[in-house]
Design a protein that fits this description.
The complex is a heterotrimer. Chain A is α/β, with parallel strands linked by helices. Chain A folds into 2 domains: about 190 residues, Thiamin diphosphate (ThDP)-binding fold, Pyr/PP domains (Rossmann fold, 3-Layer(aba) Sandwich); about 110 residues, Rossmann fold (3-Layer(aba) Sandwich). Helix content of chain A is about 40%, strand content about 20%. Chain A contains 13 helices and 16 strands. In chain A, about 60% of the residues are buried. Chain B has a single domain, classed as Thiamin diphosphate (ThDP)-binding fold, Pyr/PP domains (Rossmann fold), CATH 3.40.50. In chain B, strand 5 and strand 6 form a beta hairpin. In chain B, the strands form 2 sheets. In chain B, strands 2-1-3-4-8-7-10-9 form an 8-stranded mixed beta sheet, with helices on both faces. A two-stranded antiparallel sheet of chain B has the order 5-6. Chain C has a single domain, classed as Alpha-Beta Plaits (2-Layer Sandwich), CATH 3.30.70.20. The longest helix of chain C is centred in the C-terminal third of the chain and has 8 residues. Classes of the chains: A alpha/beta, B alpha/beta, C alpha+beta. At the B-C interface, helix 1, helix 2, helix 8 and helix 10 of B face strand 1, strand 3, helix 2, helix 3 and helix 4 of C. Strand 10 of chain A pairs parallel with strand 2 of chain B, so a sheet runs across the interface.
């Protein structure tokens, strides 16, 4: 279906990434946000708070990120598309509800405008060091989806996809910005509502009495209802059966957890979004995401000018990790070069997928600013050996 | 017919069903609560309060946290949500704001609502979020085996206060009152009629309404403190309860096996969060504002 | 209506003995003290309540309100006869509402 025009600010704008992400959420149909102020993400909720009264919906500033992260789950079961927004320290507080969203299959978009850590770290400066936390931070086995925008325009465009993916797969979808993308101002084109495709919730067509909240379809995803529809659903964070009732035994655990993980793992290739540039005959492939991909592109240009055969893969979807593509390329490249604003997170995934068939050169950076192109270029030279 | 109408010992046809049954997910009964636990009694009272309220039960949702009382949501035949420890109130806040037609009731225990969830309680009451919070207070952590709760009376023994509790417990009605709840009552499971009425009043009144119910935990509180079984605790409630409607909430703190002041302490009017939002935005934004929730 | 085996009071109780946990709330807080423990055990080993003094039962359903296990409930014969005649009772109303 097409976007509700009341939320779409059609036109050409000059916006920072935080504001563009908010417009993306409104265009996607997000009508309930619960948040808590935290630098450098706060502008997302500030804009939502000022825009939503005229669009029709609710913003509430909760008492902390724990509350925000579960208020939005309540909002989803009340029938709205929902989002919460935070940065590292807040994300750390949200972990228990990432698990709750995963096990209850609640569609939710969580924006993480990354800053330097650990702990309070560098509140006003960038990092990309929460990449593993969003994948593994809550206890137990589960899967999530994570997108990594590299410009304010992508903050708008990919945010719509983030909501569509959350509704399609009923998993938490992380929108992995960073301080630079969040505060960088660029041109953002917002199309007319009738050119924005949005995915509606998977409302069941079953009648009360016939509907089983966790009876999944062939794609591994169950249809959903909202409170008040007469289905008298029971939703629990305990391991549950298809009725949603607690079923605490190894068989029920195996069935549920395998489905929660398989619905994403088995669709890894369909979910992948890799922007590739010159990888087909490359000796060295730079794998990057988010703001770092912009620095990496400059380094790749310099390397090519110096006669090196270098390709560039930008991961728009970071989770699920596109290990299939790395595995395809590993036998025919010398090395992967992985620059990221952390000391080696996604590089570990590249290493794992390459499985010893190609080297992985980590270009780590502890955060606080972005890489210098020369750092990445030096890595490319080393990899090209 | 005459057979059925005599004493129904058992295994006969029941000519009429227990009136609480339609409110329960019958396939999940018997429940997990111990013999003599009072939580089931509070559920009876809640079911009857729902009957009296004449509400459309499709529009009533129940949200629980974690713990013994946290299991209430799973037994009630309503839209029901069993959330994380301490977080029932913020989940309920999101549910209510997302779908304002719903009557949302939070039903949880004292540890869940006032230790790990304490911050959420004070803020929801401050905001006058339109929620009813029912707290079954058994003075202990039942599900984990009888540890110190923020309500454990001074002197009572718990597994993590093995020499007797020396830290001050919350006076829950005082806390709720101070934070701005519009309705505050305390009863015990001895007071089934009064409790039913209080629950009915609480779910009928817009805004943040709070009912504290004292209920025995025979397995982990009463026996450990040599207070007998569940029924002995209910007898204590009967003997030592003093009804004082309108009592100043700061005067109603509980001591170990001391007097229990019960009654309706607070019943006042305040604009709910959602009504406040709508009124304020209409005033400051005028016709640009799209009134929410109607 | 009496089957002649007991002297009838104004009401009676119904017991689902298999889900009773023997807590004795119903027995101790029955306003007319008409209930007692059965001699028998249920499958879980609990003594469930019996209507020991049927003539004293008023069918007030305080036992139903107290019972934490939903295992007993009381009814006045007046309401019971109406219910079984299909005339509708509080319980019927609850079933409809629910």
């Amino acid at each position: 279906m097409k976007a509700d025009p009341s939320g779409v600010l059609t036109g050409m704008h000059f916006l920072d990434g935080d504001h563009a992400a908010c417009e993306g959420a409104l265009a996607a149909g997000c009508r309930f946000v619960a948040g808590y102020p935290i630098t450098p993400s706060t502008e997302v909720v500030e804009r939502f708070a000022s825009r939503i009264p005229m669009v029709g919906g609710v913003f509430i500033q909760m008492e902390d990120e724990i509350a925000s992260s579960i208020a939005v789950l309540g909002g989803a079961w009340g029938g709205k598309k929902v989002m919460t927004v935070t940065s590292g320290p807040g994300l750390s507080l949200m972990m228990e509800h990432i698990g709750l969203a995963a096990i209850t299959e609640t569609p939710v978009v969580i924006v993480d405008v990354q800053r330097g850590g650990p702990s309070t770290g560098l509140p006003t400066l960038p990092a990309q060091a929460d990449m593993m936390q969003v994948k593994w931070g809550s206890h137990g086995d589960y899967e999530i989806i994570a997108l990594s925008p590299a410009s304010p325009q992508e903050c708008f465009d990919l945010m719509i996809r983030a909501f569509n993916l959350a509704e399609t797969w009923r998993v938490p979808v992380f929108f992995m910005m960073d301080e630079v993308i969040g505060h960088m101002t660029e041109r953002v084109d917002i199309p007319p509502a009738d050119r924005i495709d949005v995915v509606e919730r998977r409302w069941t067509t079953k009648k009360p009495g016939e509907y089983r909240p966790y009876a999944a379809g062939p794609d591994g995803v169950p249809d959903m209802v909202k409170a008040g529809d007469g289905h008298r659903i029971h939703i629990t964070g305990l391991t549950h059966d298809e009725r949603g009732y607690p079923a605490m035994n190894p068989a029920a655990q195996d069935k549920l957890v395998r489905r929660l993980t398989d619905k994403i793992r088995k669709n890894r290739e369909a979910l992948a979004d890799i922007r590739e540039d010159g990888v087909e005959d490359a000796d060295v492939v730079v794998v990057s995401f988010g703001i770092t991909s912009r620095v990496a592109a400059a380094a790749v240009d310099s390397a090519r000018a110096a006669g090196l055969k270098v390709g560039h893969m930008r991961l728009v979807v970071v989770w699920p990790f596109p290990e299939h593509r790395i595995a395809q390329m590993a036998p025919r490249v010398k090395a992967f070069v992985v620059p990221e604003l952390n000391l080696g997170q996604i590089a570990l995934e590249v290493e794992r997928a390459a499985a010893g068939r190609a080297r992985t050169v980590r270009i780590g950076h502890a955060g606080g600013t972005v890489h210098e192109p020369e750092q990445i270029l030096a890595g490319i030279r080393e990899a090209a050996g | 017919m005459s057979q059925n109408l005599a004493i129904a010992a058992d295994e006969r046809e029941y000519p009429v069903e227990n009136p609480v049954i339609p409110y329960l997910r019958q396939e999940r009964i018997p429940h997990i609560w111990c013999p003599g636990c009072g939580i089931g009694t509070t559920v009876n009272c809640f079911a009857r309060a729902l009957t009296e309220s004449k509400r459309d039960l499709d529009q009533v949702a129940i949200v629980s946290g974690i713990g013994c009382t946290g299991r209430v949501a799973g037994y009630l035949n309503l839209d029901s949500f069993h959330t994380t420890h301490g977080r029932a109130i913020p989940f309920a806040t999101g549910l209510k704001l997302s779908n304002p037609k719903l009557k949302v009731v939070v039903y949880s225990g004292d540890g869940d609502l006032f230790a790990i969830g304490g911050n959420h309680f004070v803020h929801a009451a401050r905001r006058n979020m339109d929620l009813t919070v029912i707290c079954v207070n058994n003075f202990t952590y039942g599900m984990t085996g009888g540890q110190l709760a923020p309500t454990t009376p001074i002197g009572a023994s718990q597994t993590t206060m093995p020499y007797g509790n020396f830290e001050n417990p919350f006076n829950l009605p005082f806390l709720a009152d101070a934070c701005g709840a519009v309705y505050v009552a305390r009863w015990t499971v001895f007071h089934v009629k009064q409790l039913t009425r209080a629950m009915h009043e609480a779910i009928s009144k817009p805004g943040f309404t709070f009912v504290e119910v004292l209920a025995p935990c025979p397995t982990l509180y009463s026996r450990r403190n040599k207070l007998g079984d569940g029924v002995d605790q209910v007898k204590y409630y009967k003997e030592r309860s003093v009804v004082k409607h309108g009592a100043a909430t700061k005067e109603v703190a509980l001591g170990f096996q001391g007097d229990i002041v019960v009654g309706k302490f607070v019943d006042r009017e305040r604009e709910t969060w959602l009504d406040g939002m709508n009124a304020h935005f209409e005033k400051v934004l005028g016709p640009r504002y799209r009134r929410y929730g109607e | 209506m009496s089957d002649g085996t007991v002297q009838r009071g104004r009401g009676t109780v119904f017991v689902r003995k298999e889900i009773c946990k023997g807590c004795s709330y119903c027995i101790d807080f029955c306003p007319t003290k008409c209930l007692g423990f059965s001699k028998d055990f249920n499958a879980k080993g609990y003594h469930y309540p019996d209507l020991a003094r049927p003539a004293d039962c008023s069918g007030c359903d305080m036992c139903g309100l107290y019972c934490p296990d939903f295992a007993i409930y009381g009814m006045r014969y007046r309401d019971l006869e109406k219910a079984t005649a299909g005339a509708g009772t509080a319980a019927d109303g609850a079933a409809k509402q629910a």
